[in-house]
Design goal:
- The chain is mainly beta and 413 residues long.
- The protein folds into three domains: 60 residues; 112 residues, Immunoglobulins (Immunoglobulin-like); 163 residues, Jelly Rolls, CATH 2.60.120.
- Helices cover 13% and strands 34% of the residues.
- It has three helices and 23 strands.
- The chain is rod-shaped and about 95 Å long.
């Protein structure tokens, strides 16, 4: 190393020391608009180093010397800046110690089977003999019919068992009202499992009125009795209501009034129609009878007996056939305005030319009331009967004018 280089390095080191000392004595606050001494020293150092490399030792020394001179900052060279008296307070918040984060163990995800849980049904054995009700082909439940009505009851059943029904199978009466049907009747045809059959029984409604039910079951060729329902033991049945409907009119005496033979107690034949007020007695038809309790719109036969004590008038009608449950019906009373009326009504009959006999009788007087009559003719069932409508005065004749309102024979033929 040459002496020139060693000399240059020595000078360089001195310059660095000088700059360091000067920098320590400079104030830390630099007024606005003046250069920073540290920055200036750094710039001079870099320039000097570059010139020494080229061998300009003297120029470098001069620059270092110049840089070491104090910079005009406007303050005495001995000025030491006062450090700020306000010391920032440390944060008062004491940070919380780190919390322990729990370790979470994820639960296993449930396994979902689409459609939910499945169940395997337990197979139930189908009975060999088993029936199902399909329909009432005739006579629906609680059909109303007259006493003694003959009818045919038909059911439709289905074989829902595993065994075929043959003609050796039968319908058997179980309990209730048999209604005249046989206790046992064979099936009319074979029925394979799944097939249907119509079963009919001829029956007769009871003669009493009310509600009636008859229960029936099936019987196999091995005498096993079976029927409907989950246990194959329920019966199929017939249910009816027996009632007497409104009877129909079989014969009207008013419309046939002049077909009758009218006579008085002396045997005198009277004209039909006659003249009210006649001493011999009289009969006339009235479409709007004027009764002791008011007028009516049903036709009536007005009658007056012979004008003598206990005088009578009789109307003998042609013979007619009478059936069971036939009835004679009428309304009787005194004619309006005949305040002294006091009479006796009698229904006579004769069977096959026999002498006349009283069947029923009623007494009427003028009291503002009328009387309904109803005579059961069942005792004359099957007979050819002649009826006589008779009226007589109770004692001396005095305003004994009366009527038969709508006399008729009714029944359920």
């Amino acid at each position: 190393m040459t002496s020139h280089i060693r000399k240059g390095l020595s000078l360089l080191m001195m310059g660095v020391m000088v700059i360091t000392l000067v920098a320590c004595n400079l104030p830390s606050a630099v007024p606005v608009g003046q250069a920073d001494p540290n920055q200036m020293a750094t710039s001079v150092y870099e320039t000097a180093s570059a010139q020494m490399t080229a061998g300009a030792e003297q120029t470098a020394i001069a620059m270092l010397t110049e840089a070491a001179k104090p910079t005009n900052t406007g303050l005495p060279p001995t000025y030491t800046p006062v450090p700020p008296t306000e010391t920032p307070a440390p944060p008062t918040e004491t940070p919380l110690p780190p919390t322990e984060t729990p370790t979470l163990t994820p639960s296993p995800e449930p396994t979902i089977t689409p459609g939910g849980p499945t169940f395997t049904p337990t197979a139930t054995a189908v009975p060999c003999n088993w029936a199902k009700f399909v329909a009432d082909v005739t006579i629906p439940d609680w059909t109303t019919m007259a006493p003694g009505t003959v009818f045919k009851k038909t059911w439709k059943l289905k074989n829902i068992g595993t065994c075929a029904w043959t003609k050796n199978y039968a319908v058997v009466f179980a309990d209730g009202e048999r209604m005249g049907a046989p206790n046992v009747i064979s099936l009319p045809a074979d029925v394979a499992p799944g097939g249907e059959i119509e079963i009919s029984l001829d029956m007769t409604a009871p003669t009493d009125t009310g509600k009636f039910q008859g229960n029936w079951l099936l019987r196999s060729d091995t005498n096993q009795v079976f029927g409907l329902g989950s246990q194959a033991n329920k019966p199929f049945y017939v249910k009816i209501v027996v009632a007497k409907p409104e009877p129909k009119v079989i014969y009207t005496f008013v419309e046939n009034m002049c077909q009758a033979e009218w006579t008085n107690g002396s045997g005198t034949k009277l004209a039909c129609p006659g003249a009210i007020g006649s001493n011999e007695g009289a009969v006339v038809k009235s479409d709007t009878p004027d009764m002791e309790n008011g007028k009516d719109d049903e036709p009536a036969i007005r009658v007056e007996p012979q004008h003598i004590d206990n005088g009578t008038i009789n109307g003998k009608f042609p013979a007619m056939d009478v059936k069971k449950d036939d009835h004679f019906m009428a309304v009787i009373g005194c004619w309006a305005g005949n305040n002294n009326c006091n009479v006796k009504f009698t229904l006579y009959y004769s069977v096959d030319g026999s002498p006349m006999q009283p069947l029923a009788s009623w007494t009427e007087n003028y009291n503002g009331e009328i009387q309904k009559v109803d005579v059961d003719l069942s005792s004359l069932d099957g007979k050819k009967v002649v009826f006589v409508l008779s009226l007589s005065a109770n004692g001396a004749y005095d305003q004994d004018s009366a009527f038969w309102l709508a006399p008729r024979i009714t029944g359920w033929r």
